[in-house]
Specification:
By secondary structure, this protein is α/β, with parallel strands linked by helices. Helix content is 39%, strand content 26%. The longest helix is centred in the last third of the chain and has 18 residues. The termini are far apart. Bound molecules: adenosine-5'-triphosphate.
Length: 237
């Protein structure tokens, strides 16, 4: 079975269906992207996996365990860490303190120290700004910090919600390069949702396309990037 298996997942906001029964999977070691327009249901999908919103149907399996009804804190403890859209770092805490918070469930001091080194190597800018308040960082640096904080919990699956949001093309590319590196060199399994289809297809192994609460297309990201229909319909080319 896949690391993450989603079956017929449904979410409603009041009477309005936001997810109309979607099914997909993420295998160990993959980067999987979900792309689609604003309002397609991408964020809702991540929130449903993390139990931030309640599900009205379907199942979520993680490491072959049914976690559909587990509360959010248990899901984090099981190894799923979500980086929220808009980053959500603690503005009045320093870079260092934000990273420390990411490790709040851990007691393995030596390993935590090792992860600090790892994150500072991954994002040298954070190392330079350890004492700086997170609120004074640039948008790109805050995104790095949010990813770093999520990594401090040593997740088995990293959920990224629109890492490109509000960032310049250059910074976006930098972030996506790091996402690829994390996957290649550190074997991190990643599920990311993105409006920037171009970047998402470049950084991922497989991609699902969502429209109004449904998955309408999926495939190998490289193949999709070269597919005329996908290029015309979703990449504006
Ligand atoms: P975005 O890029 O804007 O985050 P998305 O693809 O992630 O878009 P969702 O945020 O998951 O889409 O929203 C899916 C649908 O559910 C949209 O129609 C949205 O308006 C609606 N929706 C999202 N959150 C709520 C909420 N808290 N209450 C009511 N409706 C909501």
């Amino acid at each position: 079975m896949a690391l993450l298996e989603i079956k017929n997942l449904q979410v409603k906001y009041g009477v309005i269906p936001a997810l109309k029964g979607i099914s997909f999977s993420v295998e160990h070691g993959e980067v999987v992207a979900i792309i689609g327009a604003n309002g397609a249901g991408k964020t809702t999908t991540l929130h449903a996996i993390s139990s931030i919103v309640s599900k009205s149907g379907g199942n979520v399996f993680f490491q072959e365990q049914d976690i559909t009804n587990n509360p959010a804190h248990e899901i984090v403890a099981m190894g799923i860490s979500q980086v929220q859209e808009g980053r959500g770092v603690f503005s009045n805490l320093s870079v260092l303190e934000n990273l420390q918070l990411g490790a709040y469930l851990r007691k393995d001091k030596a390993e935590i120290a090792r992860d600090f080194t790892f994150i500072y190597e991954l994002f040298p800018r954070l190392a330079e700004r350890q004492k700086q308040l997170a609120g004074t960082l640039s948008g790109g640096e805050q995104q790095m910090l949010a990813i770093g904080r999520a990594l401090m919990s040593r997740p088995k699956l990293l959920l990224l919600d629109e890492p490109s949001m509000g960032l310049s093309p250059l910074i976006t590319e930098n972030i996506f390069r790091t996402i690829k590196k994390l996957n290649k060199e550190n074997k991190m399994t990643i599920l990311l949702v993105e409006q920037n289809a171009q970047m998402a297809l470049w950084a991922s192994n497989r991609t699902y396309i969502m429209e109004t609460g449904q998955i309408v297309y999926n495939g190998n990201s490289k193949a999709m990037k070269n597919d005329d229909f996908i290029r015309k319909s979703y990449l504006g080319q």
